[in-house]
């Protein structure tokens, strides 16, 4: 690898100017500006800010990649609005033989009327149509699509949770993203300063990412998770969390992902209190993996060097997951942690558990939470309470649930507002330095000896408004000293 020198750069928290030398993929030297040794490859940053590269700690990369080509249902206000978009889309073109019209992004948690199977069938006829909710935990589909995917929708036309997870994989097999689409999605992430993602896609992540990297999808580092159905194969292959899986060092074996409950918008997150109006349906939410099953999975994974990442959204789900971690005496991450019991913040910290959270979800779901978690939202998306208790925070997007852009998360966590609305539970804001560190794996400035995974910022986030943070310009991104994005001359 060649030597590269950045001159006249600033660091967060230090307004002095520095020269930074990158050699053999590492930060080799940091010195006051004007004291560099000089190299043939030298770039004057002219006061731009150099930071550690950003990470998105929770994505579904295949879903994010293909979502960009699906019918956009974001912002729809009810089933009639969705049906009209579907009607217009079907009127524009005839579906190719064997394909499925797929939409994404409806949020029915605050709709006055529910979806309906008959209404969707009347609009779509025999054309298979699948409409995926923004939280990825259910899909509204017509009878033709249900038959094609081998599932049975309820009276609303909805397929939820475990049944939907299996069907979604079959749907992706019908029309998977291309290598070019994966490459474009990775490059778009690099343009936002991202050097790595933790991919929780429910697929054969290890082999698929190995092939993608070999095919030139090389703009990101990837930590690839396994789900329970692939745990034994990973063990048989001798895979351990942290193992490198490719010669270039981009792909790493991640964690075991276990989903123990549902989601807020689908009203399946497992809570101690019932959802209004759903007492006779699924009451307080659903348990998709019982505590006994979770215990067995974690024991098995831990014995073979595979750490755990457990999806828990409702307060009962979080309490039960914390119980298991405490019983086993092992650490791990809890993904989402959207509603946490008052007494569980301290337990979270005492056990050293990491809260892998998605701050933009608080903005997307504030109205749903006010409706379905009424009286409990002081501890919903409670990033401030987690931080004050001493819990390590890691930020992500859950893309495509929210955009794969860490600056959205940083803005949401520090402002608790979007679109000029009043801050929602502003007491749960975190300081900007905490939000940045939670997107940079705990570091706000490079250090000598670090792997040169870096981002160059055109503006100082410390002086940016919440709206400006969302579009903060990134001049360059590097992985191990290699540019994955640059607008520098």
TrEMBL record:
Entries under Gene3D superfamilies matching the protein: 3.10.310.70, Metal-dependent hydrolases, Urease, subunit C, domain 1
- What sequence ranges are listed for the domain Amidohydrolase? 43-484
Q: Entry's Pfam families?
A: Amidohydro_3
- Taxonomically, which superkingdom? Bacteria
Spell out the protein name for this chain: Amidohydrolase family protein
Record organism: Kineosporia mesophila
């Amino acid at each position: 690898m060649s030597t590269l020198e950045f001159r006249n750069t600033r660091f967060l928290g230090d307004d002095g100017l520095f020269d930074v030398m990158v050699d053999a993929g590492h930060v080799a030297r940091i010195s006051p500006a004007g004291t560099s040794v000089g190299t043939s490859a030298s770039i004057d940053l002219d006061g731009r800010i150099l930071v550690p590269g950003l990470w998105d700690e929770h994505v579904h990369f295949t879903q994010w990649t293909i979502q960009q080509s699906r019918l956009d249902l974001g912002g729809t206000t009810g089933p009639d609005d969705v049906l009209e978009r579907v009607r217009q889309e079907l009127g524009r073109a005839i579906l190719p033989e064997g394909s499925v019209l797929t939409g994404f992004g409806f949020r029915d948690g605050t709709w006055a009327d529910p979806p309906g199977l008959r209404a969707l069938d009347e609009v779509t006829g025999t054309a298979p149509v699948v409409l995926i909710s923004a939280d990825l935990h259910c899909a509204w589909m017509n009878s033709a699509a249900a038959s094609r995917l081998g599932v049975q929708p309820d009276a609303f036309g909805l397929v939820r949770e475990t049944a939907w997870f299996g069907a979604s994989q079959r749907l992706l097999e019908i029309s998977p993203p291309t290598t070019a689409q994966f490459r474009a999605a990775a490059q778009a992430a690099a343009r936002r300063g991202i050097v790595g993602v933790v991919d929780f896609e429910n697929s054969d992540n290890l082999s698929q990412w190995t092939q993608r990297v070999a095919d030139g999808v090389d703009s990101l580092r990837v930590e690839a998770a396994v789900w329970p159905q692939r745990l034994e194969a990973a063990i048989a292959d001798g895979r351990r969390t942290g193992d490198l899986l490719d010669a270039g060092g981009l792909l790493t074996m991640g964690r075991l992902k276990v989903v123990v409950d549902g989601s807020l918008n689908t009203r399946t997150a497992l809570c101690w209190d019932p959802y209004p109006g759903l007492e006779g349906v699924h009451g307080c939410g659903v348990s998709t993996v019982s505590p006994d099953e979770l215990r067995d999975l974690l024991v098995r994974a831990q014995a073979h060097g595979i750490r755990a990442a457990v999806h828990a959204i409702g307060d009962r789900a979080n309490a039960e997951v914390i119980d298991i971690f405490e019983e086993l005496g092992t650490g791990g991450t809890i993904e989402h942690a959207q509603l946490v019991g008052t007494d569980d913040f301290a337990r979270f910290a005492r056990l050293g558990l990491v809260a892998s959270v998605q701050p933009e979800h608080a903005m997307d779901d504030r109205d749903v939470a006010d409706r379905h978690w009424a009286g409990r939202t002081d501890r919903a998306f409670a990033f401030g309470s987690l931080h004050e208790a001493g819990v390590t925070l890691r930020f992500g997007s859950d893309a495509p649930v929210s955009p794969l852009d860490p600056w959205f998360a940083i803005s949401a966590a520090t402002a608790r507002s979007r679109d000029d609305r009043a801050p929602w539970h502003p007491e749960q804001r975190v300081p900007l330095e905490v939000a940045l560190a939670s997107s940079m794996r705990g570091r706000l400035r490079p250090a000598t000896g670090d792997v040169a995974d870096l981002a160059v910022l055109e503006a100082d986030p410390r002086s940016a408004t919440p709206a400006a943070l969302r579009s903060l310009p990134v001049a360059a991104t590097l992985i191990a000293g290699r540019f994955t994005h640059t607008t520098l001359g």
